[in-house]
C-alpha cells in the first residue's frame, strides 16, 4: 500500500510514465487504483519524433 499511497498524492499533477517498451508518456494523473492502474489526461509522447505513430493516439485520447 506504500506505492498506492504515494501515487494518490500525485493525483492532478503532471507525471511521466515509462512503459515496458521504453516509450515515455507525459500527462496529468487523474486516478490510480490499488493495482496501480493509472488514468492520464492531456497526454503527450515524450519523444514524438522517435514514435510518430503514437501522435494520432494522442489526438484520439484528447477528443
UniProtKB/TrEMBL annotation:
It comes from the Eukaryota. PROSITE patterns: SM. The keyword Repressor does not apply. InterPro entries: LSM_dom_sf, Sm, Sm_dom_euk/arc, U6_snRNA_Lsm2. GO terms for molecular function: RNA binding. GO terms for cellular component: catalytic step 2 spliceosome; Lsm1-7-Pat1 complex; P-body; precatalytic spliceosome; U4/U6 x U5 tri-snRNP complex; U6 snRNP. Keywords: mRNA processing, mRNA splicing, Nucleus, Ribonucleoprotein, RNA-binding, Spliceosome. It holds the Pfam family LSM. SUPFAM superfamilies: Sm-like ribonucleoproteins. The keyword Zinc-finger does not apply. GO terms for biological process: mRNA splicing, via spliceosome. Residues 2-63 form the Sm domain. It is found in: Nucleus. Belongs to the snRNP Sm proteins family. PANTHER family: SNRNP CORE PROTEIN FAMILY MEMBER, U6 SNRNA-ASSOCIATED SM-LIKE PROTEIN LSM2. This is Sm domain-containing protein. The lineage of its organism: Eukaryota, Fungi, Dikarya, Ascomycota, Pezizomycotina.
